[in-house]
């Protein structure tokens, strides 16, 4: 039998607690270092998806005037896909911002 460091059981509870805390600290450091990059990526993708969406109203719709529709219509195809992706990305971005505040 090998008696290496990795093959020995940790019998000291303080040493076990140290290893657990060290692993948690490493995970938190990894998350805190990668979280800004995740937020930047999410924000760029969210901006692109929002800009790809077509608007049905012209400039007059922003000031109260509307053409023939009231602004509500059924989304189909790519428009529905972009709308759902926008919702998902905005929720992920909000959760990442909340996680940044917690960490």
Q: End-to-end distance, in Å? A: 44 Å
Rg, nearest Å: 25 Å
Total helical elements: 3
Q: Describe the main β-sheet briefly.
A: none
Chain-averaged pLDDT:
78
Outline: elongated
Overall helicity: 55-70%
Q: What structural class do helix, strand and pairing data support?
A: mainly alpha
Find the count of extended strands (DSSP E, 2+ residues).
0
Q: Give unreliable regions as ranges.
A: none
State the oligomer: single chain
**Topology pattern, helix = H, strand = E:** HHH
Descriptive account of the structure:
- By secondary structure, the chain is mainly α.
- It has a domain at 35-52 and 76-103.
- The chain has helices at 13-52, 59-62, 78-102.
- The longest helix has 40 residues, at 13-52.
- The mean pLDDT is 78.
In short:
The chain is built from three helices and no strands. The protein is an all-alpha fold. Helix 1 (13-52) packs antiparallel against helix 3 (78-102).
What key phrases describe this protein's structure?
103 residues; mainly alpha; 3 helices
Layout of helices and strands:
Blueprint: H1 13-52, H2 59-62, H3 78-102
